[in-house]
Amino acid sequence: METIISNCGELSVGDEVKFDYPSGVKCGKVIAIKTGINCIALSIYHSDHTGAYTLTIPHYNVLERIKSSSKKDTTVEEIKKPSRYNKRGKLECWDVILDQEMNFLEGNVLKYLWRYKEKNGIEDLKKARVYLDKLILESENK
Questions:
Q1: Strand positions, DSSP E, the chain
Q2: What is the pLDDT of residues 130-139, one digit of tens each?
Q3: Would you say 66 and 27 are in contact if contact means Cβ atoms under 8 Å apart?
Q4: What are the strands of the beta sheet with 39-45, ordered from one edge?
Q5: Backbone phi and psi for residue 120, each to the nearest 5 degrees, phi listed first
Q6: Residue range 21-56, pLDDT digits in tens
Q7: May I ask the CATH class of domain 3-67?
Q8: Domain definitions of the chain by residue range
């Protein structure tokens, strides 16, 4: 996620801010950051206008951050090797699934059992049970 340093600290796309503009203090949401020219683009909504418009202002005109963006930037490493899948040893869940040539249902049962302590607890155990029940049903119908 792109960020820029302003008078009120670090700003990211999605942050809602109050800023100084020639026609007065306004509020808006950061929709783009143009670091090459030290400006940010703000999407501005006014209660007295329908719709919105975009302004590009210098980052130092931002007076305060009203609300931070709730988005968390996920790194490629977190996607490739989430810690919840390898806390209990050297093997990773997907390596076991591939090595054992498990099908979709079997793989999901293992996945939810593998991660339940580190991720969603009882919810993941219930998901594993759903896939196990479906696997049992499919096996009985063969």
A1: 3-6, 9-12, 16-21, 24-34, 39-45, 52-58, 62-67
A2: 999 999 999 9
A3: yes
A4: 52-58, 39-45, 24-34, 16-21, 62-67
A5: -110, 10
A6: 788 888 888 777 766 666 666 655 544 454 556 677
A7: mainly beta
A8: 3-67, 76-140
